[in-house]
Amino acid sequence: MIDPPQILFSSHCTSTESQLNCSCETLGNPSPNIQWYLNGLTVNHSKCEIFSETLNRTILRSFFTLNQPHKKNHLTLICRTVNSLGSASQQFCVSSQQVSTEHQLLYPAIISTLGVLLLALLLCVFFIR
Questions:
Q1: Structural domain containing residue 78
Q2: Start and end of every Ig-like domain (predicted)?
Q3: pLDDT tens-digit profile of 16-44?
Q4: What distances in angstroms separate CA 87 from CA 23, 30, 82, one per listed residue?
Q5: Phi, psi torsion values for 8, nearest 5 degrees
């Protein structure tokens, strides 16, 4: 089966005061390539470390490490994956205070929904008695 590339939800970034670490996992057949962009420019390997590994014929994982990210107020990092059938991108917005991705924006909504469901369950138990 042939598939255009897609970026998996396991892709993420973590940040400390001294280092920014991101991973990007992509699935596609034929096997995709990954390119990193920092603030709109193709990443220069002399300023950061990039390591990629093939997990199987269709999954590729790439790791991006930038030392001393706190020297910049805001960074935009993009993982772009390409094969002969298409491309996909994941943007990571990194500030000196926090790391966020589009996927992490769902967490507050999930927590709120679970809270409402728990409250509804407690009310049902209370009124059934």
A1: 3-94
A2: 5-95
A3: 878 889 999 999 999 999 999 998 889 87
A4: 17, 12, 4
A5: -80, 155
